[in-house]
Amino acid sequence: MSNENQKPTAQNESAQDTDKVSPFLTEPLPQGTPQGQQQSLQQQLTDTPVSGSVPKYNLPRGANTGNVGATTHFGYQTVSSEDKAQKVAEVFHSVASKYDIMNDLMSFGIHRLWKRFAINMSGVRRGQRVLDIAGGTGDLAKVFSREVGPTGHVVLSDINESMLNVGRDRLIDAGCTNVDFVLANAETLEPFEDNSFDLLTISFGLRNVTDKDAALAAMYRVLKPGGRLLILEFSKPVFEPFSKLYDLYSFTALPIMGKIVANDSESYKYLAESIRMHPDQRTLKGMMENAGFQNTDYHNLTGGIVAVHRGFKL
After folding, report:
1. What is the pLDDT of residues 14-59, one digit of tens each?
2. How far apart are CA 249 and CA 107, in angstroms?
3. Is residue 146 part of a domain?
4. The domain that contains 220 carries what CATH number?
5. How far apart are CA 192 and CA 83, in angstroms?
6. Is 268 part of a structural domain of the chain?
7. Domain for residue 78, yes or no?
8. Is the pLDDT of residue 265 over 50?
9. What is the mean pLDDT of residues 209-236?
10. Which residues constitute the domain of residue 209?
């Protein structure tokens, strides 16, 4: 199941009782709407197709590192680097309300086992501070909330308000009182101080980030010395016959399911394309090392359809 494995070495109170300010925030978010005062998810989402006329979403700003050129990829399309975040936002605003059911259908429920494997690799402990980046509907954050207990703290962050709304509603309904919900861009993680978290996770979100090197540098910055990063992401199948079957499924079945269930085939066409454009296992491992992470390794799951990458800040 795995390869290239190495063993690791070595408040503010709000003026309103109903709003809790994250202890990790150093200043108010310059963009976005306070999480307790947003429109309902139903009001936000429309039936407008991704390719149609859509509003310009107010997104937390990204990095400006020069790592990415004037153009980049959006699936198989070439787009302006400045426009990619907006296009990704269109996708996830469109699919947010059906995101969980589509995950179950697309993976035949196996995504739950992938996430459980990642959680088991996390080494999360009572009292720790965890940041779940691009955490969407909160699958991992919900488990981490229980594992860190009342003395620990979890932050569920996402760049997309609709996805964050779904996660917030789910975790509040589940009684997760030790979780904050923060609109943040993975490229900068600007609201968070250096050396703030014991554990960082990003699950099926890194491939949507325009400047992945900037995101990895930001993750290294906010992680405490001794802390670990886990990246759960689609990757490259290791068996060629299996890879061909996977391609056939991805480019035929996924858009059809998206059309039937979410009334949106284009977003799931993008999903299939974005997976193919994501760095393979060895490349991503090298990118993590370039960002400063040590004792990096990765574990292939389901024949390499998904991989869990791990790195430490020592």
Report:
1. 444 434 444 444 443 334 333 333 333 334 333 344 444 456 787 8
2. 11
3. yes
4. 3.40.50.150
5. 25
6. yes
7. no
8. yes
9. 97
10. 84-314
307 touches 281 (CB < 8 A) = yes
- Render pLDDT for 156-178 as a digit per residue (tens, 0 to 9): 999 999 999 999 999 999 999 99
* Total tally of structural domains belonging to the chain: 1
pTM: predicted TM-score of the whole model, two decimal places:
0.80
User: Residue written as tokens 């989402």?
Assistant: 45
Going across the sheet that includes 294-301, the strands are 2-3, 294-301, 306-312, 223-234, 197-203, 129-133, 153-158, 179-183
Binding site feature residues for S-adenosyl-L-methionine = 137, 158, 185-186, 203
Is residue 23 domain-resident?
Answer: no
Strands (E), the chain: 2-3, 71-74, 77-80, 129-133, 153-158, 179-183, 197-203, 223-234, 294-301, 306-312
Annotated binding site: 137, 158, 185-186, 203
| Structure-block tokens of residue 288 | 């993590």
